[in-house]
Amino acid sequence: MATNVVGKFLIHDLHIHLRQGALMRAVTPTLNKAGIGAVFVMPNLKPPISTADQAVAYRSQLQALAPNVTFLMSLYLNPALTPAEIRKAKKAGVVGVKSYPRGVTTNSEGGIESYTVYYDVFKAMEEEDMVLNLHGEIPSDPDNDICVLNAEERFLSHLKQLHKDFPKLRIVLEHATTKAAVDAVKSLGPTVGCTITVHHLELIVDDWAGKCHNYCKPVAKYPHDRKALQDIIKQGHPRFFLGTDSAPHPRHMKETSVCAAGVYTGPHILAYLANALDSFGALDKLSQFGTEFGAKFYHLKESDIKNASAVTLVKEPFTIPQLVKYIDDEGVERELVPYRAGETLNFSILPVSNKRKASDE
Amino acid sequence: MATNVVGKFLIHDLHIHLRQGALMRAVTPTLNKAGIGAVFVMPNLKPPISTADQAVAYRSQLQALAPNVTFLMSLYLNPALTPAEIRKAKKAGVVGVKSYPRGVTTNSEGGIESYTVYYDVFKAMEEEDMVLNLHGEIPSDPDNDICVLNAEERFLSHLKQLHKDFPKLRIVLEHATTKAAVDAVKSLGPTVGCTITVHHLELIVDDWAGKCHNYCKPVAKYPHDRKALQDIIKQGHPRFFLGTDSAPHPRHMKETSVCAAGVYTGPHILAYLANALDSFGALDKLSQFGTEFGAKFYHLKESDIKNASAVTLVKEPFTIPQLVKYIDDEGVERELVPYRAGETLNFSILPVSNKRKASDE
User: Max CA-CA distance within chain A?
Assistant: First the structure.
């Protein structure tokens, strides 16, 4: 067995959806033994996490479910957000503010152009050293040839403008999927980072065309886009780091006429990541991409990760469970279908125990 | 009511999947009263229609189910096909030979990899004045940046080469989805035609992303591609004509983890077509695109359409049924979900009778 040990790892997932209610209680505890130090938690609940108080309350719920994990919280950018609330959030330990295109478009006909209405908030965030997290897509607009395939590329001018107007504001372009996005982030200054999911390192458009469990937003794009994501990691660029965008939806919301967008990678992040990196010769970048670069961008200190312990990654076959069952808020048994369900990865974390994992979860 | 009459129409669908067994028996009779004169029938059954005798037998089955409709039959291009079989097929009234690239759509595992091995067959087809029908996509190949989004554009060099080598062979590029394909067909000689589906006049990639009932191969592409398809019809180009690619799959094969490719438009072709054309100001092209251009390319004579009668199209609201039920070959009740199920179109054919239609089918 010893010859198959890759090493000990404690990774950070700087973009994750942990939901609320029964689904939150189902997915959050799986992080405890997953080798996760810190996670940056998305605020898109119903209702969205819009205030410091809400973020603190949500963090308490999550912390109780996964005591070993450090939860970095975010607010949902919205018109009610004020500089005063930003300062209050900072004091409460909130780390970032997430911008979704839809939230922006409700405020002006020009959609994403209306970032200017948030400039006083961004100014406060810059002063308080908070992070602005961008879902980097503009709304589809067929009259201007904009669809899900070029929505990210067409967004990049907004990223550049925001960075120009707030050069000291830390900005993360979330879940990049295109070569254009990689090139844009590379070209910008040290305050601009970028998360990359595991599944976007493996999928292209063919893999979600008619395959609902691989369907997420932003959609996976062309092979050359996937290669650009792989290459920037292989190069060890310090402003690109892991954010899985793990987004569980119950199976009946996926395998239906209108599929919920999201890929569920949460419970096996480290195994997926090792498998993906190894597939393009970048296993040696696991610590940098999965741990160090994200920690540095987010100013994570050793003391922040006080309770987490590293896990041992081994090169041993590991079969992803077909299903994860849970009881929803109405008491109905539901199922989650993990990414690559039923497939066997080349990596696992100790103790390797497929059968126990499958039934435990 | 009289003021809402658009006119009387008898259209031809030069690309349709009528399946076999119970599904064939469920979908074929709906053509009887649909205002369909002739249909060109795809040969991708299990096993494929590979010989003249098989095509004749299949035609007999279909004719019994829809006596008013003229069935133009095709063979599945395969290595066993000989010039002698081509001549036999011609004598038996078979009209075309369909080429599928390997693995790109339903039942295409036996598809072609190289056209040059078929040149003696194509020569015989040219001499016999048969039609070569091309599924115009090359297989995805990530190492060469080929995926479902550019598979059609990358195929076009093959179309051009075939036309150059067999200038008198009538060739149809089936179900074009891109501006590149429209431009290529336009640039070629009078023996090259092109079918366009109704759904590709309405859908872009956003419409099938996560929406299984709009997922088909080739996939709908960018807004500018959709506009190119609309524009060529609006221009009244005589080598572009209707081929719906209506492709029914039972619901449980669509709303699942790996969705069958195909959009089911068959029972309401004329209403869908009128609605689509009207949406971009081309309702006046209904006869040309839906009837005349296809008939001319396929050398259809009045005497070929002997039993069909035109139907009256009216501008009256028509709601597409949510489901069409049938009993499959194992005796299990199954459902088909028609294109735009539950949506209300602006056009119908007389008699307008939503309720009766929904239950009849």
Answer: 60
Length of chain A: 361
pLDDT per residue as tens digits for the range B325-356 = 999 999 999 999 999 999 999 999 997 544 43
**Residues in contact with A84: Cβ distance below 8 Å, sequence separation at least 6, in sequence order:** none
Domains, chain A: 10-307 (3.20.20.140)
Q: Could you report the predicted ipTM of this complex, rounded to two decimals?
A: 0.93
CA distance B261 to B161: 28
Shortest Cα–Cα distance, B147 to chain A (Å): 6
State whether residue A38 is helix, strand or coil.
strand
| Dihedral sign computed on CA atoms, order B102, B105, B110, B114 | negative
The residue of chain A with its CA nearest to that of B261 is: A210
pLDDT, averaged per 10 consecutive residues of chain A (361 residues), comes to 84 98 97 94 94 98 96 95 98 96 44 79 98 94 95 96 98 98 98 98 98 97 98 98 97 97 94 98 98 98 84 96 97 98 96 46 37
Question: Do the strands B344-345 and B318-319 form a parallel or antiparallel pair, or are they unpaired?
Answer: antiparallel
Minimal Cβ distance to A149: which of B213, B222, B258: B222
Q: Which A residues in the span 144-203 are in contact with B, Cβ-Cβ below 8 Å?
A: 144-150
Q: Does B339 touch chain A (CB under 8 A)?
A: no
Chain B residue with minimum CA distance to A220: B209
CB-neighbour burial class of residue A213 (10 A; exposed 0-12, middle 13-18, buried 19+): buried
Torsion B143-A236-A166-A86 (CA) sign: positive
* The two three-digit tokens of residue A32, written as one number: 């405890």
CB A262 within 8 A of CB A210: no
Q: Is A12 an annotated catalytic residue?
A: no
**Environment class of A107 (CB within 10 Å of its CB; exposed 0-12, middle 13-18, buried 19+):** middle
Which two tokens mark B336?
Answer: 């088909």
State how far residue A209 is from chain B, nearest Cα, in angstroms.
Answer: 7
